[in-house]
Amino acid sequence: MSQETLYKVGDLVPAAGRYVCTVCGFSIEYLEKHLAYGVKFPVCPVCHAGEEGGAKAPHEDFWKKVA
Ligand SMILES: [Zn+2]
Predict the structure, then answer these.
(1) pTM, to two decimals
(2) CA dihedral of residues 7, 62, 66, 35 (deg, nearest 10)
């Protein structure tokens, strides 16, 4: 049974690393220096998941940590 933690738009990025949009596969990397400012997950710039009318609604989790 896989335990995958997913995040939604507006959640604070919890740790440095690479995160992937589980809808389209777009990945984004956050470094420690970014997180110092309290970075939050964005709407996916490729498939617009997390946006009203997008592949995922704003309240749905879709960002996944991969590295
Ligand atoms: Zn996407």
Answers:
(1) 0.90
(2) -40
